[in-house]
Amino acid sequence: MYESSSDSSFKEALADALEVGKREIAELASVVDGAAAMYGEAGAKLVRDGDLDAVMGEFAQMRLRFADELSAHLAEQSKVLSTFNVAFFGRTGAGKSTLLSAFGELNGEAVSPFGASDWTETVKPIRWRGCQLYDTPGINGWGRRKSREELEATARKAVETADVVLLCFDTQSQQASEFAKVAAWVTHYGKPVVAVLNVRNPRWRHPARVPTQAARRNMSEPVAQHAENIRVELANIGLDDVPVVAISSRRALFARAATPYQGPAKQNFEDDRDRYGIDYLSRWSNFAALESVLTAGITAGGSQLRLKSLREGVRARLNDEATSLEELRIRLTERINEVDRITQKYLEVLGYPETEERSRDLHDDVWHSDLLTLAESARRKPYKAPSDGSFLRQVRNLLKPHLAEARNNALRRCKDLEHQAFHEGKTIDAETFAERVFDGGELIDALDRVSTEAAAFLARELSLAGVELRMNDDAAYEKADLNGDAGETADLFANLLRGGGMAGGLAAVAVPFLLGGPLGIAAGIGVGAAAAVSNWFGSNMSRDAVREKAEARAKAARQGRRAIHNTLDDIERQFASGVSTSAWAAAAPLLRPALIELIVLTNLSTDIGALTTHLRGQATSIAQTPPLHFLDTTFRLLDGEDSGGSKGFLLGEDWFDQDESIELSYDTTDSADFCRERNDEDTDALRHAIGEAFAHPEPSSIRGWLRQAAEAAVADEAFVGVTNLAAPLARPAVVVAGDYSAGKSSFIKRMFTEFGIEVPASLHIRADATTDDVHRYEMGRIDIVDTPGFQSRSADHDDLALAGVRDAALVVVVLHINLLIGDTAALQTIANGMPTGVGKWPRMLFIVNRCDELGVDPLDSTAEYFNRRDRKLTELGAALRSRGIEVDATHIHGVAADPYGSVGMQYPVTAADYDANRAWDGIGALVAALREWVDDDLTRATALAGFDKACSALLVLREDTRADIAAYRNETGKHDSLIAAMDIGLEDADYLQRSLEHELDDVLAAFVTQAVARIRAVTVGEEKDLAEAISSWRSAETEDEVKRFMERATAKVNDWSTTHASTISREEAAAGFDVNLNLPGAASVGGVGDAVGQAAGVAGSVAKFGAQLGKVLGNREAALQIGHFFGHKFKPWGAIKAGKAVGRVGVVFGVVAVAADGADWAFQASKARNWDSKRDAAVEQVESDKHDAIQLLLAEPDGPWAYLNERTEQVRLLRGQYEGRQRAAQQEAERLERRLEVADELITAAQELRGGSGK
């Protein structure tokens, strides 16, 4: 055996370690102070009280916690600087307290008296060779008196200040959760470790009780397998070359305990010391190997161990805090991006505010600046949004069509008033004009409708409900004078003159006849000359009067139309401006907090980024400590160049060739009688448990339930699978389940031997996760099923085991003596069921295996052994109840399937190989009860197993149906917002179309007004001038203005296309349709998204529903192949180009000119009674020409209206297809709900039969 280093070397190493620790703690304190100072400065920019309390409060708590925890850590480290510290860490029941008592040579009172879990609840230090050793509460317990969380927090605190951690495992099993916590608490803080494997088998390294080499090797093989498993798992979490020392903690305690002994198994303690002596117990405990490893490591690198512990503890905390801050920053970034999107949305809708609007709506009195400027400064870039947002554009689109009727009515009234004034020769003053032409009520009604729809737009886009939109108060009617009496006096005088001239003319004819002779002729000539002059003057004055009147009427027409258009245009501008102001006033109270949050969080995020970098820099600045490899150090100091030999030493394999024969004698008479009594009691209890388990439900009740299920299958074929599974199974199965390494395979092997059946070659016995699939074996009239172990670190083992249990007539759960360790979800599922499977209780037995490892030798202390076993079974009952599994005590039994592991992997094997321990190992009672059940009528067992399968299938059907209903409901619901988005797009398209039509009318109206004025001014009888006046509105200037309008219209239609394509695509993406409508604002077309039908393929998202939807939709191609779901292909939704539409303006005007030239207005006018009627007809012709021009432009195939119409038709068709699909999903959901009702009825009936409350 290795002799440890001299005390002087060990003491020097400890002294050096303590000294370097004191110097290092001062340097680390400086690092911590710097980090805390940097932390204190973060988040101080633009912070205000009362805002964002949650986020800032969280950061403040992090700052405070960081400072407190680091200070507390250094304080704790300072407290223990005077000693070298070793913490024991491991699962509850692994033997930590026993081992610590052995190190400290204590009297054993700290050890659990009956092997109960969660015995140690506080950190308990003891001294060992100048070092401080700490016992800690076990991890993964079931919370006997304190919660698991409390116990584990206590253990973690002790580990954090340790220089070395002894990882304690035992030969029951090693669970994934154990290594996960080692990784989180030990590896993470860079702690040097030594692994200790507490061997539970009381015969291991007990040469006096195990005389044969074969038995010794059989017992040592599992130890080596456990050790290898530990090494591999530790290496997986970054702990390489960790020495694993196998030790018998119980024997070490018996060798080193102080007397009088107060620990468990007092009689065994006294007997062992008397029989074997302290030296024997000490040597064969292998405790010396563990002391050697610790001593060698501390001697070789105590200072390194201390420095590594101190440095890595602080480094880990700095890095942990940096990680926490990064996680907070990620959350901040997500929130910042969300608020940024909200702000961008507000600006896109309301428009980018100018300086005056910012000061009015977004000024902050605390920061004395407008919030938008501060936000843009924080985000380090301005927002990109147009000055006129989508709201203002929408309002303008709404105003044109809604005010169109009022505008047209005003123009009509103006025309009537003009006609009246000039035909009646009246003067219409400005006040009368405004009163007679404008209808205030009509305008208010129109504007109210616009307000309502604009408010709905704000509610839809910004969730601004109940916004009251008002126009500015300074809008007023523009007025005009209609001088209908213009030229009336001159016209009267001219008529008089013309009347006098006509009379003179008549006189000039009559006078010569009346007077006769030369005088008469002379008089006639004089009268005629005077009459001619009078008529000439009269005609001239009449022409002047007509011209004056025509000019007045032309002026009236021009001014009246201008007044109407200017007034309505001004109303539109004032209304748009007013509602924009109102919208900002309503939105500002919501946007201001968002901007404040954005500013604060963005600045905080920036500070956190700098702080994170600083903390990681501080962590990096801490010096790295060269690693000390315990294994290498141990081998080197052991002079063990042969790693195999050193490994054998650590695993205690040096007992194979030892001869330690000791004469032993036992009085077994009383013991045998006691064992027989207990065996009889156990047999009766197990018989009762099995009998009760199969008592209910009655087979006749099951048959009645099956008839009900068969009726359901007639109406719905989905239930056929349930009824098919309900048939009784040919052979009942006993399924063995439990944690890996609980001894399931050993248990099954023992069952085979007891039933006289040859053990299958596929049944392997190992300490690791041997069984990786479900294996079914015939055992007489039943099948016995071996399943993969739970918690084996293999992802699919739990699922395989649960699937194997589904067909079980009886489930035998095998547990090790540590009982419910770690994750018990699978066990709870077996007992209580789950949404897709029925629970197996009460047809379950819970078998605590390897009771030979309870810490008492049954041959030495039989009564004490059974006492401990009974306590363990009672503890299991309490543990099961704590997990929600209510179990009758008769269903719990304790065994040792392979006592002391003496048979192990031995093949072949017979029942005789187990005879030495048969009296107390508990197998006899279990076999007797099972044999009686097997020999009885198994009809009930097979019927119940079939009933279980049917019920599980029904539960699966119910869950699948629920999932399908939810999916179809979701399929139905997610169409709502998509269809609503399409409706909005169609509604906006309608407004846009009407708005553009009215805008075009307004553009042409100015030129038509000029033409009308020119018509009114044409001199009487000037037919050519009148014809020119009629065509004067179709000028090059008109064409240019219309072309500019067409460009604007094209831009607006493209804007509509881009906006709603994006919205619809987002809704489709959110609904999971994987659709891109290809509605870009860019000019490019073509590519993947050319056809809506191709782009709107939904095969991926709805493949699940295709078959059922196909049935509902009939022949409507619901198979959902991409590109065919909507049954139609469309032209690409690309941006229209203004060039084609603009280029067609001249052609349109040419068509209008030809049509006008061929008009019959002249013919109609020729029929008129007077020139004024001809001019009226000419005005009507101009209005008709304008209307024709508008209609031709609207019908242009390359124009914006045609594009808009085509797109809206596509959206309508797309909407109809989605609506049809929505109806189909709704119908399928309703059909499935009827199925669910039937399934619920059957499940309720089954639960009543089972007498349980199933899931």
How are the elements arranged and paired?
Layout: H1 7-41, H2 53-79, E1 84-90, H3 96-104, E2 124-128, E3 131-135, H4 148-160, E4 164-170, H5 176-187, E5 193-198, H6 213-236, E6 244-247, H7 249-256, H8 266-285, H9 287-350, H10 355-361, E7 363-364, E8 369-370, H11 371-379, H12 390-424, E9 427-428, H13 430-437, H14 440-462, E10 482-483, H15 488-515, H16 517-621, H17 630-637, H18 643-650, H19 669-693, H20 699-715, H21 720-725, E11 733-738, H22 744-754, E12 775-779, E13 782-786, H23 797-805, E14 810-815, H24 825-832, E15 833-834, E16 837-838, E17 844-848, H25 862-882, E18 892-894, H26 923-935, H27 939-1016, H28 1023-1031, H29 1036-1070, H30 1092-1095, H31 1099-1102, H32 1106-1113, H33 1138-1143, H34 1145-1157, H35 1161-1166, H36 1171-1194, H37 1200-1250
Parallel strand pairs: 1-3, 1-4, 4-5, 5-6, 11-13, 11-14, 14-17, 17-18
Antiparallel strand pairs: 2-3, 7-8, 9-10, 12-13, 15-16
General description of the model:
This protein is an alpha/beta fold and 1255 residues long. Helices cover 63% and strands 6% of the residues. The chain is built from 37 helices and 18 strands. It has a six-stranded mixed β-sheet with strand order 2-3-1-4-5-6, with helices on both faces. Strands 12-13-11-14-17-18 form a six-stranded mixed β-sheet, sandwiched between helices. Strand 12 (775-779) and strand 13 (782-786) form a beta hairpin. Helix 3 (96-104) packs parallel to helix 7 (249-256), helix 7 (249-256) crosses helix 8 (266-285) and helix 27 runs antiparallel to helix 36 (1171-1194). The longest helix has 105 residues, at 517-621. The chain is elongated and about 155 Å long.
